[in-house]
Design goal:
The protein is mainly alpha-helical and about 100 residues long. The chain is built from four helices and two strands; from the N terminus they run H-H-E-E-H-H.
């Protein structure tokens, strides 16, 4: 999370200014229910802006996955997928959003 925010939130501010989106990350001890995952919210008016935020953050996620794949990596894999070289991005969506994504 610190990597995504940058020192003093500078990187977060830069990404917000560049994309026109607001980035909200849940508090240090505020996890999605039943997990140890913090929540990232991207608020934006355009798909391009929201994708711009992800363009900045996905390299960080893949770097974390690569570190987890190393022998000294985190035993609790939060970013690496089941196959070598795969990464995971988890998204929480409403029932209406899931219907829009996969169809009725």
């Amino acid at each position: 999370i610190a990597r995504m925010l940058g020192k003093g939130g500078n990187r977060k501010d830069q990404i917000q200014d560049e994309t026109g989106c607001k980035i909200i990350i849940s508090g240090r001890d505020d996890y999605f229910p039943g997990t140890r995952f913090r929540v990232l919210v991207i608020l934006g008016e355009t798909p391009d802006g929201m994708l711009g935020v992800l363009d900045h953050l996905i390299p960080d996620i893949t770097d974390c996955a690569k570190k987890e794949q190393q022998p000294s990596g985190n035993a609790e894999a939060n970013f690496r997928g089941p196959e070598a070289g795969q990464c995971i991005i988890r998204c929480v969506v409403t029932k209406q959003m899931s219907s829009a994504i996969i169809g009725p």
